[in-house]
Amino acid sequence: MIKLALVFLLIAAVAGILGFSGLAGAAANIAMFLFAVALIIFVVLLVLGLTVYKKIT
């Protein structure tokens, strides 16, 4: 998921340089959304991993 966020960030940068403001904005929004989702999933799994691991051992 982080790879997709980086791909959309690259697309946004290239589109911004070339002057495609609508495409650049959309790609940047998609990149931010994917990064936020990946960050939320990471935090949830981190918390679950820490709590479940302590209960098992």
TrEMBL record:
Spans through the membrane: 29-53
Coiled-coil residues: none
Annotated Gene Ontology cellular component terms: plasma membrane
Pfam families, alphabetized: DUF1328
Family in the record: Belongs to the UPF0391 family.
Annotated localization: Cell membrane
Membrane topology of the entry: Single-pass membrane protein
Species, as recorded: Hyphomonas oceanitis SCH89
Keywords tagged on the record: Cell membrane, Membrane, Transmembrane, Transmembrane helix
InterPro entries attached to this UniProt entry: DUF1328
Protein name: UPF0391 membrane protein HOC_04207
